[in-house]
Specification:
Elements lengths: L6 H11 L6 E4 L20 H7 L2 H7 L1 E3 L24 H13 L17 E4 H4 L4 H13 L4 H9 L2 H4 L6
Antiparallel strand pairs: 1-3, 2-3
Helix pairs in contact: 1-6, 4-7
Length: 171
Amino acid sequence: MNKGRESLAYLTFLVDNYHNLPQTIVFLHSHRDGYPRAWHTDFDDYDNVKALHHLQISFVQKRGYANLRCNWEPGCPDMMQALRTQKEEHRTQEHIMAESWPQLFNDTKIPAVIAVACCSQFAVSRKQVLKRPLEYYQRIQEWVMRTNATDYMSGRVMEYLWHIMFGQEAI
């Protein structure tokens, strides 16, 4: 099964390797094929290999998490506002987030706004991953596989959650 865009692959890696994770884990798209296909890679020639060459592993180890998208355009849009009082049909990902948050985060309070740079490309330390038990990642993995949300929508929801899963603030 391949669902949730890259989410299921990332979660499967974490679940399968939980007890033997490397010190720093990088999750990114394999793009080396330039614009427009790799528009969500920050370097001028849209090559993620350059992102890896510039990755400051000491920063990842110190902070626990680093988004690999640092471009001001589009920045960190605050499009995910799952608590909007007026539900708009075209904001499907917000509806899914509001419905799924209790399952994904054990009934904790959902943030009013979640903002993050797009595209689910980031580095995380083993120490940060291990702050949550294996069962947590298995539960998220199960949600991605079983949700009625489409591949695209479940992937979009996950795109807004990685930084929170790994200990960062919602915005």
